[in-house]
Amino acid sequence: MLATDLPDGRNIADDYLRRRGWKESVSTREYIAGLRRSVISLYEVSGLVPGESMLLRDLVRGGEPVRVWEKSGSQGLRPWDRIATRLIPLRDRAVISGTLLAFDRDTSEALLASLRRVRNQAPSDVAVVARELGIEAGTERLAGILTPDMLLGLGAFLVTNLWLDAALKVAQGTDRPELLNTDGDPLEFTTLHFPLLPGIAAHKLRAALATIPALRQENAGFWNWLAEPGAKTQTVPRRATGQTFITTMEDGSLVLGTVELKGRRLSLVANSPARAERGRAMLEPVLAGLVRAPLTERTDLDQMLATERPPPAPTGLSPEQERTLVQQMLDAHYRRVLDEPIPALSGKTPRAAAKTAKGREAVVVWLKTLENHSGRQKPGDPMASYDFGWLWRELGVETLRR
């Protein structure tokens, strides 16, 4: 409102400063004047000093990040968050307007794409109107007149509309992406319960399961069902949209499901009905004469999310020991990931992608996403304090960490 010109050419901020500005302090008058000239844009957050300041990089107009003094906003944000706001340069520092709209990555990318379309289409649209009015104005000349600030002012409604649409989807619970397993199937956890036949002892089942190469026994009653050695996760799911859910062992083996012997029942758990059928076909030949036909239990993602989980049992470790253990596991995990194909990198490994300029751009986006998700964990969670700096250095993109 303060940055908008009224039909008669007047502006509320200008009018206020002219009529009542003498009542305000110098800093307040400077702020109102800066707000009058500002336009909303999309920024990426980094360099956070909680409760004091942060760096903002303009994702629309480009340029170097700017240190902004903001007390409350800097406390709730995480590295690489994306926000829409107005940046106001003052005499001795930069601040932001009171409005700060947080964007998730997908919505922010949709906004950037929409603004690019506005920028590309605006000169020709204005040229058409000018010709209809009998005004000579070439497209190239108009492209020079339509500055990024002017286009952001014209496209401000896109920022608020896309943000509001995303916020409504969150409120309605319709914003969750589809989760797929590595076969490209939607997640629907399926359990096959095989009752033991009368008179069948547990040791007979263990002996039968020991003949299946794909089962790795972890203890007397639990086995992991693993993919064949060397099997790769599907880098491009059968469905065009969705996120892939992957479970691996410490050695990188892909986990397809689990088998558990509890009392008089053997249970196979897989994360899709199709995968459960594969597991059934694997088990039934060796379990013939030992178990009855299985009972099937299915739980979709909505049901899982609606089920209250009991708090985790105490580990017996101190917080520092837990943090060290988790960070060692994350170190080992990401060292493996560096040499594994990543869907977000067009199926290339991070090391391979980092060898080209275009690939490095994708690697930076991937690393920022990892770091942002980690930073969103609850305070005190070992994952929240994990340092991704070594990954940036290992891939040779540390200078792009800004």
What does this structure look like?
With 402 residues, the protein is of the alpha+beta class. It has 4 domains: 19-103, Beta Barrel (OB fold (Dihydrolipoamide Acetyltransferase, E2P)); 106-172, no CATH class; 179-306, 2-Layer Sandwich (Alpha-Beta Plaits); 319-400, no CATH class. The chain is 40% helix and 19% strand. It has 14 helices and 14 strands. It has helices at 12-20, 26-37, 73-76, 105-132, 139-145, 148-154, 156-172, 202-209, 273-287, 301-306, 319-337, 350-353, 357-375, 389-394, and strands spanning 40-49, 53-58, 66-69, 82-89, 94-96, 101-103, 179-180, 188-195, 215-219, 222-226, 243-244, 255-262, 265-270, 295-300. The strands form 3 sheets. Strands 1, 2, 3, 4, 5 and 6 form a 6-stranded antiparallel sheet that branches. Helix 4 runs antiparallel to helix 7 (156-172). The chain is elongated, with a radius of gyration of 28 Å. Residues 235-240 have low confidence and may be disordered.
